[in-house]
Amino acid sequence: MKNTTKEIIESRGSWRRTNSCGALRSADAGKEVIMMGWVQSRRDHGGLIFIDLRDGEGITQIVFDPRESEEAYQKVHDLKNEYVIAIKGKVIPRLKGSENPNIPTGDIEVRARKLKILNTSEALPFNIDEKLEINDNLRLKYRYLDLRRPKMQKNLRLRHQICQEIRNYLSNKGFLEIETPFLTKSTPEGARDYIVPSRVNPGKFYALPQSPQLFKQLLMISGFDKYFQIVRCFRDEDLRADRAPEFTQLDMEMSFIDQEEIINLIEEMMVCLFEKLLGIKIATPFLKMDYPVALSRYGTDKPDLRFNMEIIDLTKIFSKTSFQVFQKVLSQQGKIGAMKVEENNQFTRKKLDDLNLFISAYGAEGLSFIKFKGENEIQSPLAKFLSSEEVEKIRLETKAQKGDIILILADQEEIVDEALGNLRLKLAKELNLIKKEKEYSFLWVTNFPLLKYNPEEKRYEAVHHPFTAPRDEDLKLLDNDPLKVRSKAYDLVLNGAEIGGGSIRIHNNHIQRKVFKLLGIDEEKAEQKFGFLLQALKYGAPPHGGIAFGLDRLVMILAGAPSIREVIAFPKTQKAVCLLTGAPSEVDPEQLKELHIKLDLPQ
């Protein structure tokens, strides 16, 4: 039987759904219900036909018995997967032994008396099945089908719940949710802006905001004490699994606040989120670590503390080494770093060659090793260059035991830290060092430098952004030794991912101009790009600070998903393309003409 469009529309009649497909339980036995949803599967058991009916709430088994309704029984033969149907029937307990403990509705089924086909479906490009591995591009092209899968439904429901809890928590703390503009001014904040041409102002452009940073500071100057916003932001940058061209940010700002107050507020919010949504109690206060310590011990400013294996500095131990490679590094004020891999027999010559190839991506080479075969017995290509005193010092410094391997790298400090930091993460995955699947390790990283030096462009850059306040005790260094100035910045790290970052802001016009000057933004450019902020800072700007969270990344971690694309309804690819809609696409030449734009495309 093939339903016409007219028949499908007429079939809806006056039926009104009484229950979702995830709602019914044993206590509902005997109840007459009307249910609607998609056909997940059909099973013919010779006399009885079973349909798994699915909607956004769950799955219910529907039974069609010719003794109950010959008409419904005959019509059910026409059903295929993903047909949209409505049924009327009675809830009954499943027969003993036929219960399904894997679904919440597994103790009951519905005996159908009437069936209506609300819509048909063509054969799908892939089945709505959690167990199947589906090509990512295919999933994104047919995202509306991918989103029917229970896992994706669960992820987006969790996202909604997180947003609701955040709104409730901050509202109860006296915060106001205030919207800021999407069409704004292009300002240099790090990544490239997405720009939007103005038709009514020919030759001029808006920029989509990379963050509401300047507007939230203006709100503090306006006298709004506590602001937040769950807001879309846009950055035209290279993408990866945890980045997207358009993303969602939890943005917050407060007046008359200090760093510890912000940290306490956020810790309380995280405790609330994890307890209400995951049923997990998070211990506070979170661990704090200075930025230089994080780099020297873990090679990154977002260390994953769910496992050990720290970077150990052996530079002093090798101060009198006879090994020429190490001598050369030390003469250039380099670093000799090491990591201990506890009792492991996987480190063959091929394995070490693979590790050397891995660290070469970070500009490093020459990874060596020492294997402790006994208290005073080692195996190492460095053995002939090591004195017994050096071996003993290495053993004590690394706390090496029999069977442990010490991986050693000598190079410039930045290269050693980055290479060993990434090698640490690689080995943790390969050696299964993270034992607990649902372990959450929070860390505050603080005392960042205000500035870093870009040797290629021969200028200073802001480590966070140009509006981050220097520490009061370091203000005197701004003129003479700016690289030693520490900032009032703080990042929140969860399981090796930065989920939030913030700072106390500059609220003094004079200091803000001085920081702009250090960043190579002269008076003219400062007025051109940030004149409105500099003007506002003259009129009684209060001390203020805040923090912003990557909401997509936070949801990804709580959902246990491998990528933020798993928690965004309609994400784009790594080339910033929407496979569903075909965006970005060409536009009508008339539109370009209205905008006074001529294309100069590469040949």
Written account of the structure:
With 603 residues, the protein is α+β, with helices and mostly antiparallel strands. Helix content is 29%, strand content 23%. The strands form five sheets. Strands 6-9-10-22-21-20-17-11 form an eight-stranded mixed sheet, with helices on both faces. The radius of gyration is 31 Å and the shape is globular.
Strand line-up across the major sheet:
6-9-10-22-21-20-17-11
Task: Provide the structure class.
Answer: alpha+beta
CATH class of the largest domain: Alpha Beta
Number of strand segments: 22
Global outline:
globular
Under the CATH scheme, the architecture of the largest domain is 2-Layer Sandwich
Helix content: 25-40%
How many domains in all? 3
Distance between the termini: 55 Å
Taking all residues together, what is the mean pLDDT?
A: 93
Beta-strand fraction estimate? 15-25%
Number of helices: 16
CATH topology of the largest domain: BirA Bifunctional Protein, domain 2
Task: Give a summary of the structure in a few sentences.
With 603 residues, the chain is an alpha+beta fold.
Fold topology:
Blueprint: H1 5-11, E1 32-44, E2 49-55, E3 58-64, H2 70-76, E4 84-93, E5 108-119, H3 136-141, H4 143-146, H5 150-172, E6 176-177, E7 194-197, E8 205-208, H6 213-221, E9 226-234, E10 246-255, H7 259-278, E11 287-290, H8 291-298, E12 312-313, H9 324-331, E13 335-341, H10 349-360, E14 368-372, E15 378-379, H11 388-398, E16 405-411, H12 413-430, E17 442-446, E18 451-454, E19 459-462, E20 489-494, E21 497-504, H13 509-518, H14 523-536, E22 544-550, H15 551-559, H16 589-594
Parallel strand pairs: 3-5, 6-9, 11-17
Antiparallel strand pairs: 1-2, 1-4, 2-3, 4-5, 7-8, 9-10, 10-22, 12-13, 13-16, 14-15, 14-16, 17-20, 18-19, 20-21, 21-22
Helix pairs in contact: 5-7, 5-15, 8-12, 10-12, 13-14
